[in-house]
Amino acid sequence: MMIAQQPNFVGNEARGQKGHRCILCVVRVALKSTSFPLPGCRPDTFQVQTLQPPPLSSSFQSSNLKSQNADITTTTCRWLYADAMTTDGGRDPSLPGSPVNIDALDLSSPTSPTTRPLYTSQYTDLTLLIGEEAAKFHVHRNIVSVHSEFFQIACGNPHFREGAERLVRLPEIDVETMTTILRWCYQAPLALPDDLMSDEGYEKVRRLLDAADYLVVENVVGLVARATDDYLYHCAKWSSDRKALVAGEQKKVDLLCRIYDSGGKMQDDCLRKYLRSLKESHKLGLFMNIVKELEDCHEKLFNDIMVALYSTVDE
């Protein structure tokens, strides 16, 4: 667990249409303890993000952060406040004394009320209309734009309709999938099915990849690719039923294609391990036939599979 040690903050305040402020802070953190020695701060409200830090002022650059011990690393952290900072930078005693607990946000129901100040219409500055039913999600532009190039472009240009109206319509994405992505945007980790290749799990992952590709959320594609890597690496059993076996391998090949089509990539050692297991189980020919018969197999995927296949020839 990370702790903040003699933190120094530099904040870029992004004020939304209705006064919401989001503080992007640069903090020194160390891997030394399981508690946070900060007043009013709980571990589940402190979220480390791999974001590009904002430009630092000259006074901040010359601060003692540069002279901290070598085991302290600089990370960009996001603390979300419900306008908990006054205009002069001090704390407003009438507001809650700790950052909003992002884990407590209820995104399972787009229209359900929440008592959390961050997740109210007073502080959100973007409305999403999701699915054919146009379910409403009230979100924060600065949060979704960090993770999604689609939102960054759509909301960052006032000449676009979405940027001017602060309203984005996404009938292509279903409510469940958008909920999964928004939960990840606000808190992580990404919720993936336990069994990626079950009928239900495969369908959820397929929709998630399609949405991540559409919204250009590269990190979600990468997380799905790593989960698929892990699944294939540990895969050692196959159905004895021929029909079920063929259907299972077709789903795997299709999922691999979707990952590559979305800009992802499989780890070479995982592909080699999976093909080796197929060979030992006398299923390699079936898998390769499915790959060769697939009309729209991604070129890079096909090349990676062939490289992995050649590595098994002499084994």
UniProtKB/TrEMBL annotation:
<dbReference type="InterPro" id="IPR000210">
    <property type="entry name" value="BTB/POZ_dom"/>
</dbReference>
<protein>
    <recommendedName>
        <fullName>BTB domain-containing protein</fullName>
    </recommendedName>
</protein>
<dbReference type="Pfam" id="PF00651">
    <property type="entry name" value="BTB"/>
</dbReference>
<dbReference type="InterPro" id="IPR011333">
    <property type="entry name" value="SKP1/BTB/POZ_sf"/>
</dbReference>
<feature type="domain" description="BTB">
    <location>
        <begin position="124"/>
        <end position="194"/>
    </location>
</feature>
